Amino acid sequence: MRIIVFGATGMVGQGVLEACLRDAAVAEVLVIGRSPTGRTHPKLREVLHDDFTDFSPIQDQLAGYDACFFCLGVSALGMSEQAYRAITVDFTMAAARAVLAANPDLAFCYVSGAGTDGTGKTRMMWARVKGEVENALLALSPRAFMFRPAFILPLPGGKAKTTSYVLLYRVVTPLYPALRRLAPRYVTTSLLLGQAMIQSARGGGPRRVLETADINDLAEAGHAL
């Protein structure tokens, strides 16, 4: 399996990339980003690209892949809807259209979030915008999968880019074992998320919109293979 990863330098993407590099079924990982990951691995190839609304300059490098794991995203905290939409909607859809144009049967796995609302009725701006993206992706490809994790524990040494998240994870990370026991349906790890994405790309997903419990179950199913 050959996989494209967007957002590999972020907290979520770091774990997803690690899951890909560890999996024997994954032969190659192409990371597309604005900055290098700092990783070296025989499977890993990186393409630096600045304009996430236009992938035509690297379109010829996108062919021949089986899946795309889109982990790029920002917190809506303190952002206007216009600015949040520019990243959440415009970047995601431009990437999806580019990789699907090169690979029509590709599995596109998108990291959304718990509480995303595709009805357009919610007052929460981020949930409404994420819902719009989900609906567009599901309509764009029959092999699009939405992942809605709640709390995600990053890889050891992984860092969030948002200050508020850095503080949150500093407090909550030591509590993860207890949280996993008390609320297993609401907590996961970035590594498990990546493993679940790989399983969806293989055709093992139970549905096209997956909540935290589905993510954990799918990752564990992959371990059993």
TrEMBL record:
Compartments in which it is found: Membrane
UniProt xrefs under Gene3D superfamilies: NAD(P)-binding Rossmann-like Domain (3.40.50.720)
Residues forming coiled coils: none
The organism's place on the tree of life at top rank: Bacteria
SUPFAM superfamilies xrefs: NAD(P)-binding Rossmann-fold domains
InterPro entries: Epimerase_deHydtase, NAD(P)-bd_dom_sf
Domain NAD-dependent epimerase/dehydratase: 3-114
PANTHER family referenced in this protein's UniProt entry, alphabetically: NAD(P)-BINDING DOMAIN-CONTAINING PROTEIN (PTHR14097:SF8), OXIDOREDUCTASE HTATIP2 (PTHR14097)
Protein name: Epimerase
